Amino acid sequence: MAVKIYTGIGDRGTTSLFGGRRVGKNSARIKAYGQIDELNSQIGIILSEIPPPKISNKLLRVQDELFVLGADLSAPVEIKVRIPRVKKNYITRLEKEIDAWEKDLPKLRNFILPGGNKVGARLHLARAITRRAERSIVALEQREKINKNVLIYTNRLSDWFFVAARYVNYLEKISETIWKGR
């Protein structure tokens, strides 16, 4: 018999973390990994738009890493459970990809408006969702100990999405719109 997706256990507004501790669904921890889940769904939308091959495999890898990040957030560090954790090499890989893309891009001298083609615009949206998730992770870190790589990875990932958006628009020969201010 198949396992049902619903149990009814969370119907009173609580959920379980790895290790069994129950917390409110509005807790800082649940909010943080809920926003990571939203980000992962946004990447699914980006992939449905068929991004250039130079980026699609990287997006799939980031989706996988976000599952690890979500598991990391759902397992308090003091609980000794066997789950994958965000590691330093995730961060290093993002930095190398950013550096490689930036070699091809025109030097950024001004703020640019989010946009471009659909993939580029959605990558900009992913950057904004990542920043929101990062703020939630900071709020969580101020209350509880978390894996330090989670916050660093999330910060770097928002930069990665920004440069990825620029790179996709560059590959598609779409000019960036400079913000002119007032």
From TrEMBL:
One of its GO terms (molecular function) is ATP binding. It is an enzyme of class 2 (transferase). Its main location: cytoplasm. Residues 5-168 form the Cobalamin adenosyltransferase-like domain. Keywords: ATP-binding, Cobalamin biosynthesis, Cytoplasm, Nucleotide-binding, Transferase. Pathway: Cofactor biosynthesis; adenosylcobalamin biosynthesis; adenosylcobalamin from cob(II)yrinate a,c-diamide: step 2/7. The keyword Cytoplasm applies. InterPro entries: CblAdoTrfase-like, CblAdoTrfase-like_sf, PduO-typ. GO terms for cellular component: cytoplasm. It comes from the Bacteria. It catalyses: 2 cob(II)yrinate a,c diamide + reduced [electron-transfer flavoprotein] + 2 ATP = 2 adenosylcob(III)yrinate a,c-diamide + 2 triphosphate + oxidized [electron-transfer flavoprotein] + 3 H(+); 2 cob(II)alamin + reduced [electron-transfer flavoprotein] + 2 ATP = 2 adenosylcob(III)alamin + 2 triphosphate + oxidized [electron-transfer flavoprotein] + 3 H(+). The keyword Chloroplast does not apply. This is Corrinoid adenosyltransferase. It comes from Candidatus Curtissbacteria bacterium RIFCSPHIGHO2_12_FULL_38_9b.
